[in-house]
Amino acid sequence: MKAKKTDPLMISAIIQDLIDLVEKGNAHASLDHALEDMPFSLLGERPENLPYSVWQLADHIRIAQWDILEFCRDAKHLSPKWPDGYWPKETAPESPGDWQKCINTIKTDRKTFIELIKNAGDALVIPFEYGSGQSLFKEALVLADHNSYHSGEIIILRRLLKVWN
Question: Among candidates 129, 122, 135, which has minimal Cα distance to 5?
Answer without folding.
Answer: 122
